[in-house]
Amino acid sequence: MEWTIVTVTAALIGLIGAVARPLLSLNSTIAKLTSAVEALQRNLEELTERNSRTHGRIFEDISRHEEAIADHETRIRIMEKH
C-alpha cells in the first residue's frame, strides 16, 4: 500500500513536470513574440507617418509643377497669337 502511494506520487510529479516545462517554454516564446510584434507595429506606424508626409510633399510638388506648366502653356498661346 505504501509503495502504491509513492508510485502514484512519483507519477503525478512526473506528469506535472512533463506538462509544466513545455508551458514555461511556450510562455517565454509568447513573451518574445509579443515584444517583436509590438516593435513591428511601432515601426509600421512610423513608416506610415513618414510615407504620409512624403506623399504630401510629392503632391505639393506636383501641384506647383502643374501650375507652372499651365502658366507656360498660357504664355505659349499668347506668343502664338502674335
Summarize the SSE layout with pairings.
Blueprint: H1 2-81
Short description:
The protein is an all-alpha fold. It has one helix at residues 2-81.
- Helical content stands at over 70%
Question: Uncertain segments of ≥5 residues (pLDDT<50)?
Answer: none
The percent range for strand residues is: under 5%
End-to-end span in angstroms? 120 Å
The structural class is mainly alpha
How many strands, which pairing sense, and closed or not: the largest β-sheet?
Answer: none
Number of helices: 1
Mean pLDDT: 91
Integer-rounded radius of gyration: 35 Å
Which oligomerization state do the chains in this entry correspond to? single chain
Strand tally: 0
Q: Rough shape?
A: rod-shaped
Which sequence of SSEs, written as H and E, runs from N to C?
Answer: H
Structural key phrases:
mainly alpha, 82 residues, rod-shaped
Note down, in words, how this protein is organized.
The chain has 82 residues and is mainly α. It contains 1 helix and no strands. It has one helix at residues 2-81. The radius of gyration is 35 Å and the shape is rod-shaped. The N and C termini lie far apart (120 Å). The model has no long low-confidence stretch (mean pLDDT 91).
